[in-house]
Specification:
This protein has one helix at 36-48, and strands spanning 5-11, 14-20. The protein has one helix and two strands, in the order ββα.
Length: 52
C-alpha cells in the first residue's frame, strides 16, 4: 500500500495540515515536540483503525 497524502484535521497538535508523501522514501524531521510522532500515529490509525 502506498500513501500519497495525509490530511490531518484537529488531530493532536495539528489543526489543519496536508502532507504529500513520496512513493520511494520520506524523512520526517524536526525539533522535539513538533509532531513527528503524531504523523506516524495518524498513519498507524488509518492502517489498523486502533490506537497503539
Amino acid at each position: 500500500m502506498y500513501i500519497k497524502n495525509i490530511v490531518l484535521n484537529n488531530f493532536r497538535n495539528y489543526s489543519n495540515q496536508e502532507i504529500e508523501l513520496n512513493k520511494n522514501i520520506n524523512i520526517i524531521y524536526g525539533n522535539n515536540a513538533q509532531g513527528k510522532t503524531n504523523i506516524v500515529e495518524a498513519i498507524f490509525l488509518c492502517s489498523y483503525r486502533k490506537v497503539f
